[in-house]
Amino acid sequence: MKSLKINLRFILALLTILNISGFAQAQRPSDHVVLISIDGFRPDFYLEEKWPAPNLKQMVKEGTHATGVRGVFPSVTYPSHTTIITGVMPATHGIYYNSPFDPAQKTNRWYWETDLIKSKTLWHAVKDAGLKSASFIWPVSVGAPVDYNIPEFWDAAEGHGGVEPMREQENPAGLLAEMEREVLGKLNNRTFNGDYLSKEDRTGEMAAYVLEIYKPNLITVHLIATDHFQHMEGREGAMVYKSVAAADRAIGKIMEAAHRAGISDRTTFIVVGDHGFVDIHTALSPNVWLKDAGLLEDKADRGKWKATFHTSGASAFLHIKDMKDKKTVERVRKILNNQPQEVRDLFRIVEKEELKEIGADPNAVLALAPKPGVSFSGSASGEGVKPATGGTHGFFPDFKDIETGFVAWGAGIEQGRQIKEMGLEDVAPEVARLLNLDMKMPEARAYSESEK
Ligand SMILES: [Zn+2]
Fold this sequence. Notes:
The chain is built from 18 helices and 17 strands. The protein is of the alpha/beta class.
């Protein structure tokens, strides 16, 4: 009997050594990570009873969640999403805003292309590991090294939301047509529209279909309706409740797909956001002040200009034409400080040292961070101070309402754990841990180790 036992053990050990791929699998806590970002995701969506989010609330109960996640500056969509998939801050990954600052002219283009990211992304790391990835409507994903990719992209002239510009950037060619045939129906302005909830439904179906049929190891998915309706209606709008329900339903579709594909026990869901939201009452246009002082002209190329504010939601970054022009910077400071006290009280100046600390655009001379309730506009025409309604983000990420959320559930995730302190840069290390990926992220810490 004894020799038989030893022989069995020997055979098992030999099998483990020979079956190298099986061995690698055993080392990974998870085989499939579904990384979902809900744009404008707030922790109260899963912490408070009133929000209709049964899937998210199940994940909180059976998994790990954060009470709040500190974002980046500016707390807007593209820099934030790029921090999520690189584990580094904007100063390092190079996606400083949604739209690049172009000294030559004001432009409508956004940071669409992955080539603009200066750091290694999770998609690159997945590819390096010989694994497969998929991505749907993710920011800065045009041309990404992703096996099944429908990137977020639109024609600058046509505006946001067109299906065909996006189709032209798909990978592989024909993926969208295949999904239209098999699951989505024909995509058009009626069936895939960000002003309604139909885009949310279709995006969830895309991720669910590809997970079920192709079983990639990493899926990144971006759901956008909660952002749109919080901009329109503020934090507590009626449509915000419906969009939270729609995002939760999209997550449910992907959970069902994992179940049908028989990979539920080897799949992890991570739900994050890019920023929180703040209700606003006032909008400031600091470029109007610069125009009145003769530091720029109200033209697409800013005419003869010396200084301009590049605004990104509730943030404004000062750029000067000549980096050595200290005199102009002093003039701008004077203009800001000479505003009537009730206006000057609406924002603070974020100095270069603080920009460096938070990992923001290194090319900005300084930035303006408004009080909650106040937003910025980049316009150089009209009044410098105007009433505003709805909600916005972009704020310096140092208060509760601008924090986003984090929920993790499934393979490799601890049950019933609450994380009290976390930053957006801490998400990628968790995905890297789950899939055993090779990423260097010195600015982040794996949250799994942070509070133990
Ligand atoms: Zn966003």
